[in-house]
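Hi all, posting the design record for the shared folder.

TITLE: backbone redesign
STEP: 1 of 1
STRUCTURE INPUT:
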């Protein structure tokens, strides 16, 4: 089984447990988004969880101390389970996968946008509306500035890539001038 299959299996297990007997999937979403933000902001914690040389009991205790008063007990037990099984290194991926699966289940699609410059809120909203019209559903938009782009932006929605960069424009112009 590949790593991404393991991650999705763990994420689906947590979400199914939350839907059946737990706090509900929105509480899990909130906890997983908070966990993702924590791991994104703390390289030390991320490195700690990736260190396979550490005793699993130490990792389990650390997770419990860090998140005991911040997460639903079901989610905390899930974190303990991952630690006991030596899978704490997958925690960031599982958290992201939980949010993605919940989005899929509710018909929300995620689009990644890389732009040469920071986009204004109006530009972001206009892009979200266009992508929503294209996909026929709600869009969650993640933007980032990519200094390697000379101008324009690239949007990825699932397997579809919309390349509106200056380089792509110049390539198309060059082809049309060459007659090809």
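Okay, here is what came back for every position:
SEQUENCE:
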């Amino acid at each position: 089984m590949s790593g991404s299959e393991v991650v999705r299996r763990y994420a689906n297990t947590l979400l199914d447990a939350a839907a059946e007997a737990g706090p509900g999937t929105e509480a899990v979403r909130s906890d997983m988004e908070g966990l993702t933000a924590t791991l994104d902001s703390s390289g030390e914690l991320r490195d700690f969880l990736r260190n396979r040389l550490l005793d699993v009991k130490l990792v389990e205790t650390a997770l419990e101390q860090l998140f005991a008063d911040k997460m639903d007990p079901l989610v905390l037990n899930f974190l303990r389970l991952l630690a006991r099984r030596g899978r704490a290194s997958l925690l960031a991926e599982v958290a992201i996968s939980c949010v993605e699966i919940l989005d899929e289940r509710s018909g929300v699609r995620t689009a990644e946008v890389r732009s040469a410059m920071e986009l204004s809120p109006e530009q972001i909203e206009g892009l979200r509306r266009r992508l929503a019209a294209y996909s026929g559903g709600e869009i969650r938009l993640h933007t980032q500035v990519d200094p390697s782009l000379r101008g324009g932006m690239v949007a990825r929605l699932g397997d579809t890539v919309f390349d509106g960069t200056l380089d792509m424009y110049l390539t198309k112009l060059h082809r049309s001038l060459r007659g090809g």
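COMMENT: The chain has two domains: 3-104, 108-178.
Let me know if anyone wants the other runs.
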